[in-house]
Specification:
The protein contains 15 helices and 13 strands. It is an alpha/beta fold. The protein has a single domain, classed as Alpha-Beta Barrel (TIM Barrel). The strands form three sheets. It has an eight-stranded parallel beta barrel with strand order 3-4-6-7-8-9-12-13, surrounded by seven helices. Helix 10 packs parallel to helix 11 and helix 11 crosses helix 13. About 9% of the residues have low confidence. Bound molecules: flavin mononucleotide. Flavin mononucleotide binds next to strand 6.
């Protein structure tokens, strides 16, 4: 069975990339993921706040929209909170490249045009095969225009692209008014890959402390829907690799993502819940399903049920949305 695929020009032995998380924060954990079949890893993010903290250059912009800072803080692995040493991250990449054979994608998380952008070059020099940008900005100012927020993403991507020659992917969120056009703008600005989608840190209210809190909720397969929708819509529309992320837990989820048009998938919650051995089970189940249905390769099924190819394009459009709602009976 040919499970190989290509993502952002990187040859992968199968479609499963382990996404940015504590799973990809230590050498030993990454080694274990490789042994269990991971095709690539996205390292846990280095945050603008970490890099700029060290260089004492925190951009005032971060404090203007302090929510972006809070959002980022929600993601900080505890280990790095007390040890903000972005040099260590570089050393870890070099060590990984010497000891593992799967591609290593570094992850940069930031919003401003501050000094952190230059760090991208250091990641490339350390040996990263590609970069993933997570640009999370949550505008709370009622006067901020959507166009300005979009421009922030484009500017950050362009600035990073000026410093590196390795492929750069962008982990998008699904909250833009026109995600398809935003995807096009990112591709025009130089994105080689789009990760659909980031899973924001959730907001909740602590009723004992009477305070708002941020929590990380793990996903389930039920969270795959937006990823399938937008993979299916964007497939073949843009010259870019697509990576399905959020809600990929089982071999069925991978099949759906690939048939929708994804080139690869990212997995995090499923591995946090079930351990690295889950990768082997999913790969075995994926191969068994493909053999039973007489598929010979991942390539063969890519985009087969996307907007461009489905026999039911209405599934992606408003007409079907109206029918589903009006025909529902209880
Ligand atoms: C504990 C935890 C830490 C995470 N850390 C990061 C991070 O450092 N950078 C990032 O871009 N995404 C981070 N994420 C988001 C994941 O990479 C992924 O996008 C999200 O969990 C959705 O995928 P899933 O449904 O497979 O879990 C984190 C997620 C979790 C659960």
């Amino acid at each position: 069975m040919d499970l190989t695929t290509t993502y952002m020009g990187l040859k992968l032995k199968n479609p499963i990339i382990v996404g940015a998380s504590p799973l990809t924060a230590t050498f030993d954990s990454i080694k274990k993921l490789e042994e269990n079949g991971a095709a690539a890893v996205v390292l846990h993010s280095v945050f603008e706040e970490q890099i700029n903290y060290e260089s004492r250059e925190i951009d005032h912009f971060l404090f203007k929209g302090s929510e972006s800072y809070a959002e980022a803080i929600g993601y900080f692995p505890e280990v790095t909170l007390s040890n903000l040493e972005s040099e260590d991250y570089l050393k870890e990449i070099t060590r990984l490249k010497a000891n593992i054979s799967i591609p290593v994608i570094a992850s940069l998380n930031g919003v401003s045009k501050g000094g952190w952008i230059k760090y991208a070059k250091k990641l490339q020099e350390a040996g990263a095969d590609a970069l993933e940008l997570n640009i999370t900005y949550i505008p709370t100012d009622t006067d901020t225009e959507a166009r300005d927020v979009e421009q922030l993403y484009i500017d950050a991507l362009k600035a990073v692209k000026e410093h590196v020659s390795i492929p750069v992917g962008v982990k998008m969120n699904a909250y833009f008014s026109a995600p398809a056009q935003m995807a096009k703008k990112l591709v025009d600005a130089g994105a080689s890959g789009l990760v659909l989608f980031d899973r924001p840190v959730h907001v909740d209210i602590d009723l004992e402390d009477l305070n708002s809190i941020q929590v990380i909720n793990k996903s389930s397969s039920k969270d795959l829907s937006e990823t399938l929708r937008w993979s299916g819509i964007l497939y073949k529309k843009l010259d870019v690799s697509l990576c399905a992320s959020t809600g990929v837990h089982s071999h069925e989820d991978i099949l759906k993502a690939i048939m929708s048009g994804a080139d690869a998938v990212q997995m995090v919650s499923a591995l946090l819940q079930n351990g690295a051995g889950h990768l082997q089970n999913v790969l075995n189940d994926l191969t068994a399903w493909m053999e039973e249905k007489e598929y010979v390769s991942i390539e063969q099924m890519k985009g087969s049920i996307s907007l461009a190819h489905t026999s039911n394009p209405a599934a992606y459009q408003r007409a079907n949305y109206m029918r589903i709602l009006t025909e529902f009976r209880f």
